[in-house]
Amino acid sequence: MKVINSEIKAFLEENKMWVLASAGSTPNAVPIYFTKVLNDNKLMLVDVFMKKTLENIKSNPKVAITVFNAEKLQGYQIKGIATYITEGSLVDEGNTMASVLKLNAKGVVTVEVEKIFVTSPGPDIGKSL
């Protein structure tokens, strides 16, 4: 089933800074700049500096991602299951993305999207898509 529709995909691609929230022994939320929509059900976030987030994902793979555009007052919260990958073509792609800022990817987090919620102010706030 297609979870990420074309409107949300365009929004995610336009707004590069995503916040990844994880929960383990201590809740954690971190901004992630190197991101990509992989397909209609999966997202990729590149690990350059993750530490607590990875500890949390190992104990609890359920995560949330928030993306918001303050100028348009538009946003979404995405919930899903995270998997950490340390080798392969996605990590190579993550390294290519990070190299723009002379950084190296240690791995990537892929998120299998389960639900998307509207966080834009207005009558649809909290609505599940």
UniProtKB/TrEMBL annotation:
<dbReference type="Pfam" id="PF01243">
    <property type="entry name" value="PNPOx_N"/>
</dbReference>
<feature type="domain" description="Pyridoxamine 5'-phosphate oxidase N-terminal">
    <location>
        <begin position="6"/>
        <end position="94"/>
    </location>
</feature>
<dbReference type="InterPro" id="IPR012349">
    <property type="entry name" value="Split_barrel_FMN-bd"/>
</dbReference>
<protein>
    <recommendedName>
        <fullName>Pyridoxamine 5'-phosphate oxidase N-terminal domain-containing protein</fullName>
    </recommendedName>
</protein>
<dbReference type="InterPro" id="IPR011576">
    <property type="entry name" value="Pyridox_Oxase_N"/>
</dbReference>
